[in-house]
Amino acid sequence: MPWFEFATLLIYLAVLSALAIYGLHRYHLVLLHRHHRGDAVQVIDTFSTEPVVTVQLPLFNERYVAERLIRAVCAMDWPRDRLEIQVLDDSTDDTCEIVAGIAEELRAAGHDIHHIHRTDRTGFKAGALDAGLARARGEFIAIFDADFVPPPDLLRRTVPHFTDRRIGLIQVRWDHLNREHSLLTRIQGLMLDGHFVVEHTARHRSGRFFNFNGTAGLWRRQCIEAAGGWQHDTLTEDLDLSYRAQLAGWQFLYRPDLTAPAELPAEINAFKSQQHRWTKGSIQTGLKLLPAIWRARQPLRVKAEATFHLTDNLSYLLMLVLSLLMGPVLFIRHAHGLNWFYLVDLPLFLSATMSVAAFYLCAMSEIDGGRRQRALLLPALMAMGIGLCVNNARAVIEALLGHDSPFVRTPKHCIEGRRARWTHLRYRAAVNALPALEVGLGLWFFFLCVCATLFGQWLALPFLALFTAGFLMVGLMSIGQRTLLRWRHS
Prior knowledge:
Number of domains: 2
Largest sheet: 7 strands, mixed
Strand order of the largest sheet: 3-2-1-4-6-5-7
Number of strands: 7
Oligomer: single chain
CATH architecture of the largest domain: Alpha-Beta Complex
CATH superfamily of the largest domain: Spore Coat Polysaccharide Biosynthesis Protein SpsA, Chain A
Shape: globular
Structural class: alpha/beta
C-alpha cells in the first residue's frame, strides 16, 4: 500500500476517533440526566416585599413581533411599581416608530416602560444590555428576545429563588410557538429539546457549569456586575458571562418545568445564520475562557464538562474533514480488499452516530413520552446535522483564525401556526455560496453510494446515504427557499 493511502487511513481513523469521543460524551450526558432526573425541586422562600425587577427587551428591526413581546411582558403578574420594562431598541427601520407608539400607550396606562433607542450599535446585543443595565433600577434583570412570549406567572414562579443569596441566574426552558409549522421547525424544536431537556438538566443537577441562553432567564444584577458585566468580544455574550459568573462562585438554577415559548426560524438560511453565530461564539468563548477554567479551583469533572461543552462544535469541522475522506477510504478499501477494516471503523461510526439517536430519544421521552411521529424525525435530524457541517465548520475556522464578524440577528416573522406565511415579509437572511458546495457534496456522496453498491460495500451504504440526504437536504432547501423569496419579491 502506498504511503499516502496509509496516511489517509490513519487520518480518517483519527478524525473518526475524535468524533466517537464526542459521541461517548453525549452518552455520558444521557446517563447523567437519567441519574438525576428524579432530583427534587428546591424549596423556595418568598420575599417579604416583591423586589424591583427590570425586564430588558433587546430589539433590532423587529416590526412583526415587537408589539406581541411588549404586551406579553406588560401582562406579567408583578406589581407595576416594582416592574420596570426597558425596550432596548437598536432598530434602523420603522420598528422604532412602532415601539415608540406602544410604549407611549402603555406608559399612559400606568406601566413603567422606557424606550431606549441607540443609533450607535457598539457591542450589538451585549452593548444594548450593558447600556440598559446602567439605567436600570431593578435588583433583578429578566431578559427576553423579540420572538418570545413570556407567560404571565413567570416572575412569580422564579423570583423567589433569589432569596438564596448564592443564586446569580435562573434559566427556564424554551418552548416553541411554531414547532409544527414545517419539517424544518420540527427538526429545530427537537434539537433545542435535546439541549434544554438533557444537557441543561444533566449539567445543572450534577453540579457542572451550564449557561444562560441569552433569553428567558433572570439575573441578579450583582452577579452580572461582579462577573465583569456584558462583554462583546465573542458572538455569544450569554455563554461568556455565564462561565465568568460561575468561575466567580455564583450558582445557577435551571427550571425545566417552566417554559417560555418563542418562534423558530421558518427559513433555512435564517436558521443557518443563527447556527453560524452560536457555533462561532462558543468556540470564541472556549478560546477566551478555557485557560481560566483549568486554572480555577474546580473539580476535574467540572473542568472536563466545561471543555466538552465549549469545544463541542469542533465536531462540525471534524465531520467536514471526515466527509472529504470517506470517498478515498472507500476506494482504498475496495482496491486492497480491506473488508476487515469495518471491524475498526464501524464501532467508531456507531459511537458517533447512535449517540445522537440516544440523546434525542431521551429528550422526547421526557417531553411527550417519545411519540412515534416525533421519533420518526430522528433520521431527518441526523441528516440535518450532517448537512450543517459546511456552514458550521466555516464558523469554527473563523473563530480559530480570529476572524471578526458582526452580530447577525435572526429574522422573526410572527409565525405561530402551520399556515402562517413568511415569504411575503420584509426581513430576509443573508445568503452565500455555501449551498452550492453542499449540493456538490450531496451529489458526490450519491456517486459514492453507487460505487459502494457496485463494490459490494454494503456496510458503508447506510452512512453514505445519510450523508447524501443531509447535504442535499440543506443545500437544495437553501437554494430553493432563496429562489422562492426572490420570485415573491420580484
